[in-house]
Amino acid sequence: MNNSWNKVIYKIWSPIYDRIFNSGAFLRARKKVFANTHFTNEQKILFVGVGTGADLELIEDQLDLDITAIDFSCDMLDKARAKFENSPIKFQEMDAQKMDFESNTFDVAVASLIISVVPDADKCLKEIGRVVKPGGVIIIFDKFSGETRKQSISQKLLRPIIKVFGTDIGLNFEELYSMNNDYLKIEIDTPVMMNGMYRKIILSKL
Fold first, then answer.
1. What whole-number distance in Å separates Cα of residue 203 and Cα of residue 183?
2. Is residue 68 exposed (0-12), middle (13-18) or buried (19+ Cβ within 10 Å)?
3. CB-hemisphere CA count at 13 Å for 94?
4. pLDDT tens, 67-80?
5. Apex 61 CA angle, 56 and 67, nearest 5
6. Domain Methyltransferase type spans what residues (predicted)?
7. At residue 59, does pLDDT exceed 80?
8. How many Cα atoms are found within 13 Å in the side-chain-facing hemisphere of 81?
9. C-alpha to C-alpha distances, 110 to 37, 90, 97, 158, 200, nearest whole angstrom
10. CA–CA distance, 49 with 173 (Å, rounded to integer)
11. Residue 9: per-residue pLDDT
C-alpha cells in the first residue's frame, strides 16, 4: 500500500463504500463503537479518515459541535461533504500520516478503519497521538490480527494480495501499541465484529 495507490483504490471504492461498510454487520459494529459516546460543546473533535461520513451519520444529533473531518481521498471526502453540506463540519483533504494541525489541538480523535489502510500504521497512530491533547481520547474501530489470533497459512498468503485492495488484514495492535505505550494508555479494548478481528479500542493520552 502507498498513498498514490490508495487514492486510486478509494476512488474505485467511493461509489459502493456505503453499501458494504455502512450496512449490515459493519453498521451494527459502528453502532457498538459509538454506543454511550457523547461529545460536548467544549470539545474539539477530529474524525481521521472520515471516508464517506459513515460515522458522522451515527452522531447526527451532535453535528453542530466543533468537528473536523479529514480524508486522503477527495472522492470519499466528496461523498461525506454531500451528506452533510448543511452542517458546520470542517472537511479537509489530508494525509492521516502527516497532518497539518498543531500538536495538542483536539480533545477527541475518532479513527475508524483507517489505521489498517494507511501505508504506515505506526506513523498514523503517532500523528493521531500528536494532535490529541494530553488527557484526550482516541476512539479506534479497526481490524487487527491480535496477540492471540495467529494468522493461518491462508491468511498469510492472502495478506499481500488483500493489501492491493487497500487494507491490511495482518496488522497486530499489540505490537503497534508497544511502540506507543509511553504516552498512550488503553482504556477499553473490546470485540465488536468477526469474533474479535474488529475491535473497539479507546486510548487516553497521558
1. 10
2. buried
3. 20
4. 999 999 999 999 99
5. 50
6. 48-140
7. yes
8. 12
9. 11, 15, 14, 28, 11
10. 18
11. 80
In angstroms, the CA 194 to CA 173 distance is 16
What type of residue is 101? Answer: F
Q: What is the dihedral of CA 105, 107, 113, 117, to 10 degrees?
A: 20
Q: Given CATH 3.40.50.720, say whether it is the number of domain 3-205.
A: no
Half-sphere exposure (CA, 13 Å, Cβ side) for 52?
16
Identify residue 69 by its one-letter amino acid code: A
Coil vs helix vs strand at 35 = coil
User: What residue has cell string 476512488?
Assistant: 11
Counted residue by residue, the chain has a size of: 206
What residue segments make up the domains of the chain, in order of their start? 3-205
Average pLDDT on 7-29 reads 91
